Amino acid sequence: MNPFYIILSVAALLLIGGIAIYNGLVSGRALVDEAWSGISVQLKRRFDLIPNLVTTVKGYAKHESETLEKVIQLRNAAVYASPLDVSAQAQASAALSQGLRSVFALAENYPDLKANQNFADLQAAVEKIEDDLQNSRRYYNATVRDYNTKCDSFPSNLVAGLFHFSKKMFFELANPEESQNVKISF
């Protein structure tokens, strides 16, 4: 067999393999971006619902306005956190989740509020959004894991380095205490 054909065959295989690895990295990056978009959609739904929830609760819990104002401040901070900064979004989201738990804890002291259909509907909607958001975060983290594994694994790490594919950050809590239950006392 002619050595030229052997070298040509090896070069063709390397080129085809490199193209396949590159396309896999592009696909992985697109999945991460799509998963981040899913988190953004859920966060937007949550941000849009919070003012309605706070308005409903304010009618019943006038003297608890400090808690409600804090939730609005947390919502605004989360809205204005950079959508490209996963860490900032994670911190703002965790703080807002704790604030929402405080609002629902207020409902325990107001039986009329708990019985109010608007509040019940809003609470159910927020709980559904929180579940959807949790699922979106899991999906995002799974796509980041897969993409980062491609970026770190041989031989795809060579292609990733050559074409400047960088690893993505996981959506995680900055502070482990944020995962604990909120303690509310009146």
From TrEMBL:
<keyword id="KW-0812">Transmembrane</keyword>
<dbReference type="InterPro" id="IPR023353">
    <property type="entry name" value="LemA-like_dom_sf"/>
</dbReference>
<keyword id="KW-0472">Membrane</keyword>
<dbReference type="GO" id="GO:0016020">
    <property type="term" value="C:membrane"/>
</dbReference>
<protein>
    <submittedName>
        <fullName>LemA family protein</fullName>
    </submittedName>
</protein>
<feature type="transmembrane region" description="Helical">
    <location>
        <begin position="6"/>
        <end position="25"/>
    </location>
</feature>
<dbReference type="InterPro" id="IPR007156">
    <property type="entry name" value="MamQ_LemA"/>
</dbReference>
<dbReference type="Pfam" id="PF04011">
    <property type="entry name" value="LemA"/>
</dbReference>
<keyword id="KW-1133">Transmembrane helix</keyword>
<comment type="similarity">
    <text>Belongs to the LemA family.</text>
</comment>
